[in-house]
Amino acid sequence: MLPYVIRRLLQAVPILLAVAGLIFVMFSVIPGDFASTQMADGRSVVDAEQVARMNKQFGLDDPVHVRFANYAMKLATLDLGTSFRTRQPVINSLLERIWPSLQLAIAAMAFAIALGIPLGFLAALKPGGWLDMQSMFVAVSGLSLPQFWLGLMLMYAFALVLGWFPSFGYGDGNPRYIVLPAVALGVAPLALLARTTRAAVLEVMNADFVRTARAKGNSEVRVMRWHVARNAMVIVLTTLGLQFGSIMGGAVVIEKLFAWPGIGSLLVDSVSLRDIPVVQACILLLVLFFLVVNIIVDVLCALIDPRIKYT
Amino acid sequence: MKKLAFATALTLVAFTVSAQAQEPRRGGTIRFTAPYGASFVSNDSHVSNQIQDEIYGYALHGMLFRWDSKAGKPEPELVKSFTTAADGLTHTLKLRDDAFFHNGRKMTADDVIWSFTRLVDGSKNYPGASRVVRIKGAEAVRKGEAKEISGLKKIDDFTIEMTLTDPADPSFLFYAATTAIMPAKEAQAPDFFNKPIGLGPFKFVEHVPGSRMVFERWEKYYKPGKPYADKLVISPMGEAAARDVAFRNKEIDVSILGSTQYVAYKADPNLSKGILEVAEVFTRNMGMNPEFKPFSDKRVRQAINYAIDSDLIIKRLVRDKAYRAVSWLPSSVPAFDKDAKPYAFDPEKAKKLLTEAGYPDGFEFEWTATPNESWGIPIVEATIPMLAKVGIKVKVKPVETSALGGVVAKGDFQAYIWSNTSGPDPLTALKCFHSSTPRSSCNYTTFKSAAFDKLFEEAAAERDAGKKVEIMKKANALLQEEAPVWFFNYNKAVLAYQPWLHGLQANATELALQRYEDLWVDATSPAAK
Of B36, B35, B101, B62, whose CA–CA distance to B254 is shortest? Predict the structure, then answer.
C-alpha cells in the first residue's frame, strides 16, 4: 500500500505543474493586469510611468516564456512568490486562510454525510415508496439550486425571520457562525450522496452474495449491515471523496457571501485584482487538496473492501 | 394656570429628553461595513488605494489633513495650521504636539518625513507616491537619485517646511489614508504590520482577513473625550444582498445601498428614516475618442449629449440614485456653477448638428462598457434606441471592470462609459483636460483646447480664492460646450443607518468614509454595552 501512496503522490507533481502552466497561460492572455485594476474604481489615476514601474517591480514586463521560467523555477523550490497587492509572501496569505476553509469544508461534508447517506439508504429500502420519492425530490432540488441563491435564502429564513443564526462573519469560535455557510455549501454534496447511496444500495441489494447471505438465514439487519452497507460504501466513499475535493470550489461563492475568511474569498479578491501569484497559489492548493483527498479515499476503499488491491 | 404650568412642564421634559437624546454617549460597539468588492489588502494603509483600506485607515491612522464634510474641504488634522509663502509653493506646516501613536510615543516631524520618504520609495510603488511626488525633490528619491526629499525640511520637532513643485493646496494632497503618518522607528520593525500602530482614534486589536478588523478606543487621542465608542468592528461585505439581510437583522449599523435597495428602503416606513444621501465627487460619463473620426468634431459630441434622454435613464434605470450631470465638475465642489443647465433632450437638434458635421445618415461606433448596473452595459443598452433615432448605431464591446482602466489608458476604444473622480479638488479634476496631461494619466479623451488651457493656467496661478473659483467655473462651462464626454450623472451615494447610530457625516469624497471618533451609539443599540 505504501509504495502505491508514494507513487500517487509523485503522480500529483506533473498534474500540479500542468495546472500551474494552464493558469499561467490563462492569466497571460485575458485582458487586464494588476496596474490597470488599480484604476478600476475610477478614483485612482495610475499614469504610464507608474504602470511601467509596477510592471518592472512584479516582473510583468518580461516576455511570457521568461516569466513562466521564473515562476517554474520558484515553484520548484516551493516559493509561491510575492503578492502584488499586499507585497507580502503569498504563503502568508494562504496560511491565514487555510484553517477557516478547512473548518467550513469539514462542517459542510459532515452535514452532507449525516443527512445524505441515511436518506439515500432509506430511500433504497423501498424503491418507489413515499420516502424514496421525497428523498429524490430533495436530491434533485439540492443539485439544481444555485449556491448563491440558496445562501441568501438561508440567511433570510434562519437569520432574519427566525433569528437562530448570525447572517455573516467568522465569529469568535462560536459554532453558530458556521451553520448557515456550511449548510449552503453542503446541500449539493448531500443531494449527490443521497442519489449515489440509493443507487449503490439498490445495486448491491440485488447482488448474488446478498441473496446467498439471506439464504444462509442471516437476519435482515445483519445482511444490511455486513453485506449491503459495506459493499455500497465503496461507491459512496468514492463519490464522497470527489465531493470533498470539489467542495472547496463551491466555497468560492459561499465564503464571499458570508464574509468567511477562507481560500475561496481570497481567490475571488485576487482574480478581480489580478494578483496572479495569489491566484496561482490558491488554485494549486485546491488541486492539491483534491488529489490528496482522492488518494485517501482510494486507501479507505481498499481497507473496506479486501477485493481491491493496489500494487 | 394649572394647564399652563402642566404644558410648560411637559415642554421642559420634552426639551430635556431631546437634549439627552442628542448628547453623545460613551461606550458600545460600532459595527461598520466596508461595502465594496474585496477584503482589506493588509494592515498597511500605504500599500493600497482601495477604498476598502481607506475605510479602516480612517480608524487606525492620522493624516496631515482630514476631509471636513460640513465645510466641503479638507481641514488640518495632524497639522495645526499652515502658512504659504508669496511664491505659492513653500508652505510652513505647524504640527500638533499632542498627537500620540498607539504605543504612547508623541508624533514628531521625523515621523512625517520618514512616512513620506517611505511612500515615495521607487522600489515600492505605493499609491500615495503620486501625491508625494508633488513635493520638490521627491521625484529624485523615487528614481533612486537621492535619499532625502529636498523639499521637506524639519525646522523643529513640530514644524516642517514643505516646498511643492506646483502651486497646489497641500491640504488636498495629504488627506487620504494612503498618506498616513506612521511611526518612523517602530514601523521598521519586522513584525510591525502584524500589529500596526497609528495616530487614529482607534487602536488595532485584530484582523481576520476577509471577515473583520477590530479596534478599541485610543485613550490618548488628541481630541478630548473622543472617540465615544469603546470598540469598532469593520467587516468587508461586498455582496449587497448579504449586507441587506445583515442590516435588516440589526447585525451591522450601516450599509451602502445600490439602486434596487435604494427604492426598497425608501418605500419602507422604518428603513426610510435612516437614509443619508450625498452627491459624491464622481461623474459618470461616456468618453469619446477623437481618433475615431466622427468624435473629433465637437458638433458630433454635442449631438450625442442632445440625443440621449439622460433624465429618463436616471429615473427609470438608476432609480433616481443620481444627480443629472451638467458638466465635469460635480455639484459638491465649490467651482460648480449652480445656474448652469444640462444639455436638453433634443433629438432634432442632435440631427441638425450631425448633418452640419457631415453625418446626415449618422454613423456606427463601438462602445466599451463593463457590466456595472449604474454606469455600464445596462445604461448603454438604454441609449441604443435613443441614438438610433438620430441615425447613430452602437456596437457594445463588453470588458471586465478590472480591465477597463487599462483599456482606456491605452486609448484602445472608440467610446467608453465609466465613473471617474471629478473632485474634491476642482483644479486637479480640471487638470485632466489640460492639453499637457497625457491620456495615460487622466486625459482619457485626449482633450485639447487652447482656451481651456489658458483658463486652467489662470486658475492655477490665481491666489485669490474667490477669483480662482470664478475662473474654474468658466473652464468648466467651456468643457460643457466642447463636450469631450457625454455628461451622464453625478453619483448619489446612499448610506442606510440604524436609528441608534449618531454622528454620521455626508462625506462627498466617499460616503463610506466616516470620522469614527464622532460616531456614537445610543442605549438602544444591540451592541450598546
Answer: B35
List pLDDT tens digits, range A43-102. 888 888 888 989 999 999 999 999 999 999 999 899 999 999 999 999 999 999 999 999
B421: nearest CA in chain A? A43
Q: How many CB atoms lie within 10 A of CB B310?
A: 25
Q: Which of A158, A178, A256 best tests the B interface by mutation, with the highest count of B CBs <10 A?
A: A256
How much is the pTM? 0.91
Of A36, A85, A257, the CB nearest to B48: A85
Smallest CA-to-CA distance from A101 within A155, A181, A9 is with A181
Distance from CA of A259 to the nearest CA of B (A): 5
Query: Is the torsion defined by CA of A286, A288, A289, A294 positive or negative?
Result: positive
The string of pLDDT tens digits covering residues B489-515 is 999 999 999 999 999 999 999 999 999
Please, is B372 exposed, middle or buried when counting C-beta atoms within 10 Å of its C-beta (0-12, 13-18, 19+)?
A: middle
Question: Measured between CB atoms, does B127 come within 8 Å of chain A?
Answer: yes
Pick among A269, A271, A274 to test the B interface (most B CBs inside 10 A): A269
CA B39 centroid distance within chain: 19
Instruction: Count Cβ atoms within 10 A of the Cβ of residue A143 and give its class: 0-12 exposed, 13-18 middle, 19 or more buried.
Output: middle
**Residue B33 sits at the chain A interface (C-beta within 8 Å):** no
| Nearest beta carbon to residue A160 from set B124, B248, B401 | B248
ipTM: 0.89
- The answer to whether the Cβ–Cβ distance between B441 and A45 falls below 8 Å is yes
Candidates A263, A265, A262, A200; CA nearest to A236 is A200
- List CB contacts of B251: < 8 A, sequence separation 6 or more: A159, A166, A167, A168, A169, B31
Does residue B424 have a cis bond before it (omega within 30 degrees)?
yes
Amino acid identity of residue B439, one-letter, is R
- Which triple of cell numbers denotes residue B287? 468618453
All cell numbers assigned to B90: 513653500
The verdict on A163 touching B (C-beta cutoff 8 Å) is yes
Give the DSSP letter string of B1-35: -HHHHHHHHHHHHHHHHHHHHHS----SEEEEEE-
User: Measured between alpha carbons, how far is residue A44 from residues A74, B50, B275, B282 in Å?
Assistant: 32, 9, 27, 12
> Between chains, do B211 and A169 touch, taking CB under 8 Å as contact?
yes
